[in-house]
Design a protein that fits this description.
- The complex is a heterotrimer.
- By secondary structure, chain A is mainly alpha-helical.
- Chain A is built from 14 helices and no strands.
- The longest helix of chain A has 34 residues.
- Chain A is globular, with a radius of gyration of 23 Å.
- The N terminus and C terminus of chain A are likely disordered.
- By secondary structure, chain B is of the alpha+beta class.
- Chain B has a single domain, classed as 2-Layer Sandwich (Alpha-Beta Plaits).
- Chain B is 17% helix and 18% strand.
- Chain B is built from seven helices and eleven strands.
- In chain B, the strands form four sheets. Chain B has a four-stranded mixed β-sheet. Chain B has a three-stranded antiparallel β-sheet with strand order 3-2-11, with no helix packed on it. A two-stranded antiparallel sheet of chain B has the order 4-5.
- Chain C is mainly alpha-helical.
- Helices cover 63% and strands 0% of the residues of chain C.
- Classes of the chains: A mainly alpha, B alpha+beta, C mainly alpha.
- Chains in contact: A-B, A-C, B-C.
Chain lengths: 434, 245, 79
């Protein structure tokens, strides 16, 4: 092992007590997920809990689509953080920029895989989308701009932003030198090079922001343009999708930053001011999102079409009430925690209120996504079909669990090979990362 | 160009569901999948409950939401107005199913060869079928149709793809009526060219007050209902849905 | 003219152009679907061309950063 000035905490041979059990558990989850998907491939999607809506009384979009939206939503945080740093010059957030970019890249890959898991003809789907995709379908935007465009742009951003650290690590004699040198591609850390990088990042950030808004709006349009589904058909869908994406993404970033802070002993670099900035952004986004929820609720309670009120009735007091009120409670408690954290002096020195809020908004986001997708299929149909029901089968839970495990594994794998927190630049506060 | 449409006389329909039966045999649809579906509805409470029946094929809308959302163009609108599903191109995303306000789409969750009404291995059944599995499947469903020569006829072809009422395109191209229209014992259903004032469907609609379902949704459906009225918001199905596949 | 600047601008313009052309002229047309032409791309694999256009635009950033300096460029003003 080279004695370098800085070693990554989880490098080869330095796993630590929790590393191996955690990785083992994740690999098991991944294995179970793969097994479940193979069963779905061989038996057909009848192994899921999905069924046709209408006469068959089921829901045809369920847990998979819920998590497609959730994963794309999480990807919002990554690039918007990077863009905020570059465009609004919020340098306090610089230490988490790589984690954020990585979150975006991994989540978009997971979203793509979840969509494929939901297709009845997956291989044909991949080919036919590249061959025949129609711009009129909202899926065109999801496929081309979100999965292909946004993912590629984020990879470019991650790549360019990591060149300097790759060069530094390679020079320090870190493991995987070949890979690091390839990444660095001759980066020389001269002033003109740094100027070029700043400019490229600046313009990339400017280019990615409209892509970001279009990407999440397109996903909202997948639902918001469907006149045939009361509960979906609303001009608010696209903006609400964007807002909840921001909330859940920032929440996940807070969780990741807190884990990194604790496990890598980075209290200095991932300090309270950085968490404060993240916390405030999450708080404001959460308030805006709750405003959207309130507006939609009030509108439908005051006067909605018969079918929209059918859906609302099931959400507020029927089959889905337990999930709906749990999600709302989660969001409200998170907001309260954030208010307390901002207002109460003693709390402000702790990170845990933010982390708890982050966990609550993510669970709430998963629930809310489910509540967008499913109730409008089982209830409130425009023709007088009997109400239906849907519950995910173990296959769906296993596949989603496997995908989540894959995401965490990719994150951990990256952290093992590459600095997950950007190395301090020369002339920084002098506190070196151990 | 022909503009195919259908008319349904609710004064004549008695809810016998022979049309559903004929459609199933003609199109080889798997269990739970009904291209033609007849609602059996009741409104009000005893002693003033009313029962009504509402046959619901695919509307073959002129502004079809399902065509607009199909990501790969497997669901398309023919020039004669029939909205067809190319099961060779369909990727099984089921977007058409959630986009349709009428709920006419079905997805093959299982291999149709394994999704049958009878257990063909059973000795009693095999004695009747002579071991042929399935005992009957309309051969016309495996041919391509239309000027585009696409695979659009019938159902139960392969798992992982969508299907729905085709106005029996494989019969219509031979000059026949759809199976449901031919079978209806009280001639409640008619089919033909809406632009031809002498066609059966035009004569059935002519001079009678009628409606189309969910017109306010802007879908421009091609199925006209005469006699009777659209189901009110209090109408509820008498049947329970069957979710077994 | 600075070679790097030229290539980057060219990539951005070509990339956006390819996206616009693929979306508006090569993929399936927009509008109320009245016949099968609304469900067919005018050129097969037009969506792939669209994605290629997106890729070219963002690859311009990589070119901008990675293209090595040439002696004659150093005296010219940086883009």
């Amino acid at each position: 092992m080279a004695t370098t000035a800085r070693t990554l905490p989880a490098e080869r041979g330095r796993g630590g007590r929790t590393w191996y059990p955690v990785v083992a558990l994740l690999l098991i989850l991944l294995g179970v997920g793969i097994y479940a998907y193979l069963e779905e491939l061989s038996e057909g999607m009848a192994v899921t809990g999905l069924r046709n809506l209408g006469p068959q009384g089921g829901a045809t979009w369920g847990l998979y689509i819920t998590f497609v939206i959730y994963f794309v939503g999480l990807s919002f945080a990554g690039i918007s953080t990077a863009a905020l740093i570059r465009l609004a010059k919020i340098d306090k957030l610089r230490p988490i920029v790589r984690m954020a970019e990585l979150l975006t890249v991994i989540c978009l890959m997971l979203a793509a895989m979840t969509i494929v898991a939901d297709l009845g003809q997956p291989l044909r789907g991949i080919v036919n989308l590249f061959r025949y995709a129609r711009p009129q379908s909202p899926f065109f935007g999801t496929f081309t701009l979100v999965i292909s465009g946004y993912l590629f742009a984020s990879l470019v951003y991650l790549y360019l932003d990591g060149r300097r650290d790759a060069a530094v690590r390679a020079a320090e004699g870190a493991p995987y030198r070949g890979f690091l040198r390839a990444w660095a591609a001759g980066y020389s850390d001269t002033e003109p090079e740094r100027v070029r990088h700043r400019r490229a990042s600046f313009w990339l950030s400017i280019a990615i922001v409209p892509l970001l808004v279009t990407a999440h709006s397109t996903l909202g349009f997948v639902f918001g343009l469907q006149v045939g589904r009361p509960g979906w058909y609303s001009a608010l869908q696209a903006p609400a999708f964007v807002m909840l994406a921001g909330v859940s993404g920032l929440g996940m970033l807070i969780i990741l930053a807190a884990i990194a802070r604790r496990s890598l002993h980075l209290q200095a670099r991932l300090g309270l001011p950085m968490f404060r900035t993240l916390g405030i952004f999450m708080f404001v986004s959460l308030l805006v999102y709750l405003y959207f929820v309130g507006v939609e609720l009030l509108t439908n309670l005051y006067t909605g079409s018969v079918r929209e009120r059918d859906v609302l009735r099931e959400l507020l007091g029927g089959d889905y009430a337990w999930l709906y009120w749990s999600a709302i409670a989660g969001f409200v408690i998170a907001a309260a925690l954030l208010v307390a954290w901002l207002a109460v002096q003693q709390l402000r020195t702790h990170i845990w209120p933010l982390v708890v809020a982050g966990v609550l908004v993510n669970l709430g986001a998963m629930a809310k996504r489910f509540l967008i997708v499913v109730p409008s299929q089982t209830e409130g149909q425009l023709l007088p079909y009997a109400d239906g029901s849907y519950a995910p089968s173990w296959t769906e839970y296993a596949v989603i669990g496997g995908l989540l495990a894959l995401g965490v594994l990719l994150f951990l794998g990256f952290a093992k090979v590459f600095p997950i927190i950007p190395l301090p630049e020369e002339g920084d506060d002098g506190k070196v990362v151990t | 160009m022909t503009r195919y449409g259908m008319s349904i006389d609710l004064d004549k329909c008695m809810g016998c569901r022979a049309c559903m039966e004929a459609c199933k045999v003609e199109n080889s649809t798997p269990p739970g999948s009904f291209f033609m579906y007849v609602f059996r509805l009741e409104q009000g409470e005893y002693p003033s409950a009313r029962v009504s029946f509402l046959p619901r094929p695919c509307m073959h809308c002129d502004n079809a939401p399902c065509v607009k959302v199909c990501p790969v163009g497997a669901r398309y609108k023919r020039e004669d107005g029939i909205v067809a599903t190319d099961w060779d191109r369909c990727i099984g995303c089921r977007y058409c199913e959630v986009a349709c306000p009428y709920g006419v789409n079905t997805f093959n969750w299982m291999d149709p060869a394994e999704n049958t009404y009878l257990d063909y291995d059973d000795a009693d059944v095999a004695a009747v079928t002579g071991g042929v599995v399935p005992p009957y499947r309309n051969p016309a469903l495996e041919e391509p149709y239309g000027p585009e020569q696409r695979m659009i006829a019938g159902g139960g072809h392969s798992r992982g793809v969508m299907e729905k009422c085709t106005f029996c395109v494989h019969r219509v191209e031979d000059g026949l009526d759809p199976a449901c229209v031919q079978t209806c014992p009280v001639r409640a259903l008619t089919f033909g060219d809406l632009d031809d004032p002498t066609s059966a469907v035009s004569r059935a609609i002519q001079g009678r007050t009628g409606f189309r379902l969910l017109e306010e949704a802007g879908t421009e459906p091609r199925v006209h209902y005469v006699g009777g009225a659209a189901p009110g918001p209090e109408a509820r199905e008498v049947d329970e849905p069957v979710t077994e596949v | 003219m600075n070679v790097r600047r030229f290539i980057v601008w060219a990539m951005v313009i070509i990339g956006f152009g390819l996206q616009a052309v693929a979306y508006l002229a090569l993929a399936a047309p927009l509008g109320k679907p009245t016949d099968v032409s609304f469900s067919e791309p005018r050129v097969p694999f037009a969506p792939l061309l669209f994605i290629l256009g997106v890729g070219i635009v963002f690859s311009a950033a990589i070119v901008y950063e990675l293209l090595p300096d040439r002696p004659e460029d150093r005296t010219a003003s940086e883009p």
